[in-house]
Amino acid sequence: MSTDAAKPTRREQILTAAAEKFARAGFHGVGIDDIGAAVGISGPALYRHFRSKDAMLAELLTGISDRLLLGGKDRVDATTDPTEALDRLVRWHVEFALRNPALITVHMRDLDSLSDRDHRRVRESQRLYVEVWVQTLVDARPALDRPRARAAVHAVFGLINSTPFSAHLDTSAMSRLLRDMAHGAIAAI
């Protein structure tokens, strides 16, 4: 059995190290040499993989937004039951948040460090992801109007995305807690 698929590429290793470093010290508090040292290469050697530190940040933040959107669409498309689709979305977002606390921190702190073009791209993917949730929530609760559904979705995201600051339980227990709280918040509207 090959383990090549499980082993991250050098580019993925660099992005993971950059996310961890940016989460701890902020985008502007991290140098290219810091990231290189974290993956065992010189800072200048990173330029074989990325044109700049800005390009790393852009790939991190556009990448998480695109992954959330595609993952959300996949989960909704896998069922015709809107209540099940909503549960799949909650589970997806909770799983993503628990696996990627550094990326959430970087997004919250450093989104405004992106170029205007990359910032717009991230926001467009995020908008589309929100709309996947809104449509699913409205399908599950037809009496709910879209503005209220959208506000609820953003509130649920805030709850789930608090994991870099609130994950004080083991992953399994934290996952259950977040899913229960997200469903409770949705039930309250």
From TrEMBL:
PROSITE patterns cross-referenced by the UniProt entry: HTH_TETR_2 (PS50977)
Source species, domain of life: Bacteria
Keyword terms of this UniProt record: DNA-binding
HTH tetR-type domain segment(s): 8-68
Keyword DNA-binding: yes
Pfam families: TetR_C_24, TetR_N
DNA-binding region: 31-50
Sequence intervals crossing the membrane: none
Keyword DNA-binding: yes
Residue runs in coiled coils: none
PANTHER family hit by this protein: HTH-TYPE TRANSCRIPTIONAL REGULATOR RUTR (PTHR30055), TRANSCRIPTIONAL REPRESSOR MCE3R (PTHR30055:SF237)
Protein name per the record: TetR/AcrR family transcriptional regulator
Source organism per UniProt: Saccharopolyspora ipomoeae
